[in-house]
Amino acid sequence: MSFLSVDLQHKTYPNGVCTLRDLRFQAGKGEFIALVGPSGTGKSTLLNLIAGLDAGFEGRIDYPADTTLSFMFQEPRLLPWLNVEDNIRLVLDAPSRQADTQRCARMDALLEQLGLADFRASFPGQLSGGMKRRAALVRAFVTQPGLLLMDEPFQSLDEPTAQGLRQLLLQWWGETRPTVLFVTHSLNEALLLADRILFLSARPAHIILDYPVPLVRPRPLATSQLQPVRNELLQQHPELLSGIPTFYQPACP
Ligand SMILES: Nc1ncnc2c1ncn2[C@@H]1O[C@H](COP(=O)(O)OP(=O)(O)OP(=O)(O)O)[C@@H](O)[C@H]1O
């Protein structure tokens, strides 16, 4: 049964840029969906619409009203005047059915898992780029969201760090099973993480292929093991290669 339903006729910005047109899909509860498409086609725009940050579109987006939603943006977006712990507590202060002690214990455990326990009193300006991303990841997960939107969350991280975070993400997802929409430019990252990959066209974006990933979990982490699936996909759908040169790059080992 569908948990999230997206039925967009179009999204046109006031300056006339039409970024999404006739874009429709559904996501099941607990499904992990990757969104892959050319730069500038409208992936971030789509997440903004789903998050309710932009209501200026034609169409419908539906998911249960009581859903806890988390959004991990392209940039960590930590408030510079708050330390790590207070940046995370910002989302914990929202009303919740969970007891406060339970949520604080979860924050402590996540900080520990991500190696940030000793930096909870540090301010964003005192953290490396990777540490800020890890703090943003704790903030996205601490509320145990039912719908998790992630916009290229591991871009510009060194590969071992990114790979470690992907594994943690999969572990957390397995434990609480939010529905995930994960934007990436890396086909390998999408193959490693997702149940389904939605390939988007160039702008105005629509879905050109809804691809169920034919790999059982746990997935192989090495690119060499993903390669046969990737090769078969690209042989069957050579159209995916046009306009998306990043597909050639093994961005995830
Ligand atoms: N506020 C805005 N006003 C006008 N045009 C915008 C606005 N925000 C985005 N756009 C345009 O909408 C299109 C889609 O942008 P968006 O950021 O959603 O793309 P994207 O697929 O996420 O790109 P990338 O992969 O490079 O992050 C782009 O052409 C962009 O210039």
UniProtKB/TrEMBL annotation:
The keyword Nucleotidyltransferase does not apply. SUPFAM superfamilies: P-loop containing nucleoside triphosphate hydrolases (SSF52540). One of its GO terms (molecular function) is ATP binding. Residues 4-227 form the ABC transporter domain. Pfam families: ABC_tran (PF00005). The keyword Coiled coil does not apply. Keywords: ATP-binding, Nucleotide-binding, Transport. InterPro entries: AAA+_ATPase, ABC_transporter-like_ATP-bd, ABC_transporter-like_CS, ABC_transporter_ATP-bind, P-loop_NTPase. Belongs to the ABC transporter superfamily. This is ABC transporter related protein. It comes from Thiothrix nivea (strain ATCC 35100 / DSM 5205 / JP2).
